[in-house]
Design the sequence.
DNA sequence: TCCTTATCTTGACTGATTCCAGAAAATGCA
DNA sequence: TGCATTTTCTGGAATCAGTCAAGATAAGGA
């Protein structure tokens, strides 16, 4: 498990200033995979009660731009964040409750990265979202 | 090209009441592929100036639920609508200007439809978004 | 034509995210 | 270590897509 000083190092490595809010946000994203901004704000305030929501938004933006966290935003849901970066894995999203699980594509390393016709676009990423129902939501009424 | 009576038939076929706003919305979606709600409101009002934005939102929801139009919502952009339905084709999205083009996946008919590990989810759709830059945005400053 | 029910109009409202200006803190250098 | 510079944070207002709600209107079937 990563420590606070690990996170500080990562921030420095990305040429970002090391601030308390940023370290706490990085910790929160690691501790709560696929959490939305509100959850992260809550987690951060568990440690730094006075952090403004704006600081969390700023930090998430900075961390995302630096590639230290990854933003996910399935259609119809608010933005989520995860700490697993650099491998372009994909996600399974529950239509009912919005829960997210990681998934690796069945087809090789860079799945579907080439569209049959790219329409002249310069493509740098293929994002795949699997839509369905999570185990809990696909089960009948019972627990 | 589809006529107004074609659209009326499609609405009836989907067990939806045929109303002026719905016909106009269906026309607008066909005439403006990948348009956002605001654009559609504008197009609809070109024909029916008094239509409320709520009626357009209601219609788009009804048409989407009925499968007559498809909603697209790339991360960070507002919802768009298109009339090409039933083939689960994919999209190329420009990071800079948000423009969208259709794309068929290189890998067979149901690309990447099976994740290597579905985590117990019941998956019914694999959505693929190719991110990059459109020809206009990837070109240097010149025209 | 009349009745029932769905849809539309109007206008307020929500909730995620952003913008702004002044205060505070982090880094670099003496 | 102490100061200057620059970035970041705080606090609060603002934006914007989309939704909610109640009464008026129109669609479809008897």
Sequence:
């Amino acid at each position: 498990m990563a420590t606070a000083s690990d996170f500080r190092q990562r921030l420095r490595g990305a040429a970002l200033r090391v601030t308390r809010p940023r370290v706490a946000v990085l910790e929160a994203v690691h501790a709560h995979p696929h959490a939305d901004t509100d959850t992260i704000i809550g987690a951060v305030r568990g440690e730094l009660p006075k952090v403004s929501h704006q600081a969390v938004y700023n930090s998430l933006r900075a961390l995302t731009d630096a590639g230290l966290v990854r933003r996910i935003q399935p259609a119809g849901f608010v933005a989520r964040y995860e700490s697993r970066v650099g491998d372009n894995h994909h996600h399974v999203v529950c239509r009912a409750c919005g829960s997210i699980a990681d998934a690796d594509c069945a087809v090789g390393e860079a799945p579907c990265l080439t569209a049959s016709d790219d329409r002249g676009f310069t493509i740098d990423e293929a994002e795949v979202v699997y839509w369905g129902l999570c185990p809990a939501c696909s089960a009948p009424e019972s627990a």
In short: The interface with chain A takes residues 71-76, 79, 90, 92, 94, 101-107, 111-112, 114-135, 138 of chain B (CB under 8 Å).
